[in-house]
Amino acid sequence: MSLGLALLAILIVALAAGWLGFARAVRFRAATRLHSLPSYHGAYAALWAAIPALLLIAVWVPLQSRMVDQAVLASPEGRALPADAMQRDSILSEASDIASGKIEQGFIPQSASLAPRIRSENERFGLIGGAAGILIALAAGLWAMRRTGPAFRARTGVERWVMIVLFAASLIAILTTLGILLSLMFESLRFFRMYPAQDFFFGLQWSPQMAIRADQAGSSGAFGSIPLLWGTFFIGAIIAMIVAVPLGLMSAIYLTQYAPARVRSWLKPILEILAGVPTVVYGYFAALTVAPIVRDFGLSLGITSASSESALAAGSVMGIMIIPFVSSMADDSIAAVPQAMRDGSLAMGATKSETIRKVLLPAALPGVMGGVLLAISRAIGETMIVVMAAGLAANLTLNPFQSVTTVTTQIVGLLTGEQEFDSPKTLAAFALGLALFAITLLLNLIALHIVRRYREQYE
Amino acid sequence: MSAAKRGASRWTDAAMTRRVRRRYLFERIFRGTGLLAISLSVAFLAFLLWNMGSKGISGFSQYEAALPIDFTKSDLFLDPATIKGPDARTTVAGADLSTAIANAAGAAYGPAADQMFSDAAVDRLTDAIVANPSMLTGSTTLWLPVGSKVDVAAKRDGDPAAEKLVGELQQKQALRRTFNTHFLTGADATDPSAVGVWGALKGSFYTILVTILLAFPIGVLASVYLEEFAPRNRWTDMIEVSINNLAAVPSIIFGLLGLAVFLDVMNLPRSAPLVGGLTLALMTFPVIVIAGRNAIKTVPPSIRDAALGVGASKMQVTFHHVLPLALPGILTGTIIGVARALGETAPLLMIGMRAFVAAPPHGIADPATVLPVQIFLWSDEVDRGFIEKTSAAIIVLLLFMLLMNGLAIYLRNRFERRW
Predict the structure, then answer these.
(1) Residue A323: closest C-alpha in chain B
(2) pTM to 2 decimals?
(3) Is the ipTM of this complex over 0.85?
């Protein structure tokens, strides 16, 4: 019996328990007043029948695959397998693919003989798990249904279950954060066991190409992250912000202070479209249209090293993408300045622009700064634009017409293509991911701190 | 301080008028700068859209050439009588149609033309034969889609040989432009004139389906818990901090998480919409929670008090009154979050959804690719025919984004209440 069938059976048991509980409650209601509505009695029985059994199945599924593997290895066919763990695992995974019908035939002959054994073990453990689940569903459902009575507080019981479900849903956030932290840290630690951490954090050389043979030149691979961090910073925090901050800030000032209401109601959504365009579109735009223009411009300036994968092309397009973000942050912080300050300045005879420059902007500055920091954190985590428009050459350069590479570009580069999970190349991607996560987290925390701290002054 | 040093103090003074004029000039300049900034931003957007549109619109059309083909002379070993029933396509596909097409093209337009048709032409010919097997006994003229080289040459500048061929074809009136329905119904292929977005669209659909089914209910429940029930304690603080942080985590990190957890620990199938949807659900979840909390916050306390007053329990107040009133706001936030997930590329690259998939997926466990990743893959191709296809796929993607955002705006205007 497969677990899918067991799931179906559990659901049927739950529905039946629910229906019986409901019917019992209705019969009681004919005689006396009930504490809870009959539907709550039904729901109570159904929830008790379903949830513990489903939890059991959820725990059983990962256990089952492990137990099947062990049982198969202990069987006569399994003991005949080669002792080498890697070879054995590949035969096992192929055999289980055959057993589940995913593939019809394997490349390794042993897997075909192993498949029936896996199928039968799977069935055996599936039967055990499924039967246990159904039994629990029956027992719990029966017990819950028997409790139905005039004085029984079924509604409170149901609400307790709902509360547990609500809490479990919000726990997903913590689980995800933990998952990110643990997986990044775990893989990074494995990387640092192969490659010294100080060389990763302070090394100036990045060339992850590992040679196939040990005697080839540069076979060790160098994983110094400084050039990547510089490239990321150069594109995301310098070039993109040179484009985005003035344009975003001035747009926000014009929209909030000058534009008539009708123009504003048109322009703001249009600006928001800029934020909704998928990044892969920006990347294509940058690589196909902006990059050649930038290169030709660089060549016409006499910069012979101008690359078609320049930092300027990727950075400026990223800046355009960030404009609406900066604009809406600036908009918020300008709107948070009390009206009285503006009125006071205007009443003293200051022009609008003088009010904005001398009163509104200084008051809104912390908010704007926080917004810019958040924008930087978003820009350095941005992937597709730099993957498509920035290069893979790790240069430590100040020349915006040259090619630089970024952390995200390298993560994509390292993890696509040939994949073996234990090579330093793939593990380096997780170390880079950890660095990226830490940097963006830090930027966000600082930004939130600034915004919160200074906004309170006016409230 | 002397009067001279203080400068003009009367409005009629020459110095004062000059100063006022300067101040007003500056005011105009400042205002102009603002207008310039917003116009530049809008101009960028217009340029981007125009650029994609002008490049991509030709991707929706396809040149076809007339091919006189004499089946009696071709070496096709096909018996019209055997071509029927469900196996008809396989039977026809077993024959060497591409050689037959090449020979016929060479015979009709000279030896330079024998490679002018693509795989798409083979497909079309197969369909034609299956539909009408009796044509195999005679000769006929068919309109078949030309290969990428000729297509590019016909639309704009291609290589000289192809340009010459196009000139000849046009002289014989054997070339026509048609709407490329295959682009909307086909999947990925190696020849740009045979590619389609349907496979990627279907992959996107399955992926987003998984995302919505997971992220929406869990997100709504979590926001209800945090806004209505959560006690002020350390657990709640931790949950709130992690949600706010997750909303700002770069999307590629979620890809790394998906790779490490879903693929390596849980052994889920690679390149499948299931894993893509799971990863995107984790990414969309905080967005939905934040939108949900804001929407629940706007429901006035008087509603809760009234319901509590007539004897509803806290749970009933929440699920019977607060949640239905907050739902339009939650939906708006959800659609915006899902639209973002629909356009997301980087995390899906991490979990292997960049494989070449030539057939549309049939379920959430099949290997698939999604529209943004398809765009990324095509943008990497060298063949010039892929430029217009990439831009055309971008047009399709942008239309979907526009549709979803439009739906969100409609919902907001139609159902959202101001209290």
Answers:
(1) B41
(2) 0.88
(3) yes
